[in-house]
Predict the structure.
Amino acid sequence: MTRPTRHSLIERWDRRKALTGIGLGAAAFLTPGAFAEALEATPRQTEGPFYPNEMPLDTDNDLLVVGDSLTPAVGDVTHLSGTVKNVNGEPVRNALVEIWQVGAKGVYIHTADAAGKERDEGFQGYGRFSTDTRGRYYFRTVRPVPYPGRTPHIHAAVSIGGDRMLTTQCYIAAEVERNAKDGIYRRLGDAAKRVTLDFNPLKGSEAGELTARWDIVIGLTPEDPAPRRR
């Protein structure tokens, strides 16, 4: 099996969006900065204890396949895409977007979480992507699953030039009961709507793939405390 490259994945996703009408919409094709308006920042949330302490062999934006493995990850394939803008409404190019999450067995790749547990070895668990000139990003991952104490979620971080601008998490709108019981989610209050996503069936997919759109809005200065540098 020949693994698709990062560029072929993006090209394929752009073609699919054009054919099905999903994804970034007409606004994505405007000149960067055109019609910019003030936006509400995406709420900050805890990084949690399981940001990878040892990076996987592969850190690209396709979390379903690790390296040259022929065994894909288990789970509901999800295409997560959107844009990164600043609070002035301007697309942010070359922003590093990172995501990390549990696989189908509810285990992170962090060694402290994986110790003594069975995890999906076919799931990368972490990925990164630099936004394009329109501030767009894209990941192929799996629908997150719950684990004890937490509703399904995906961690995310945005950095510029090594400065961490935002650390946050996103959630699944359909997980109403689990979200309501999650203390971290409840603390969001009204801001929860900016990180709660619809995971919808991907039109035309015979494999039951999902699509989720998340537009991320960052502030103009790095987070406090001092940003992580990697």
Remarks:
- DSSP finds four helices and ten strands in the chain.
